[in-house]
Amino acid sequence: MRERRASPLPVVVAVTGASGAPYAVRLLQALAAASRPTWLVVSSHGWRLLATESDIASSDALRDAVGASNWDPWITAFDDTDRGARPASGSARTAGMVICPCSMGTLAAIAAGTSRSLVERAADVTLKERRPLVLVPRETPLSAIHLENMLRLTRAGATVLPASPGFYHRPRDIDALVDFVVARVLDHLGVEHAVGRRWGEGDEATE
Predict the structure, then answer these.
(1) Does 116 count as an annotated binding residue?
(2) Any idea where the Flavoprotein domain is (predicted)?
(3) Which of 50, 83, 151, 188 lies at a 20 to 30 A Cα distance from 127?
């Protein structure tokens, strides 16, 4: 009798109002390519960000940017105002959550435990259930308040992964810089992928 393999647990992906829309789109593409179920939540400021930086002004436009063939089987979208949705419950099992990009307002709310939206509640649940929580802030410079909130979240078990791409792999375009950050996010979520290039691998790619 053939052994039945369990489906992988979903990854919760949230998009908020910090700069970095291309990171969010590429992350969704990579998760779908890796055949990982994804629960997506975009805040109102996240939608404004997508429109401003990537000309993505609707859920249909985001679906087109990710690719309909990947979106339909793998991505389920939830309204950020619906605090009764599945990502808000600890009994709904997930593989973890990433907020990419993560605004400082969202980061502060999570650090204080004052969840006012589905994004913030899902992050709160991820922490209390001891699941991976990856936060991708894009802010510079950082104030003492920002740093203290990041430290508090790190001590609570979150991973603060700033959108700070490296240059040692000699990127030739913006896509390579985006892939650098997205690859690190996927690594910390435990998702196997072929995004970007690891140190010491594929040196011929720079030729």
Answers:
(1) no
(2) 11-189
(3) 50
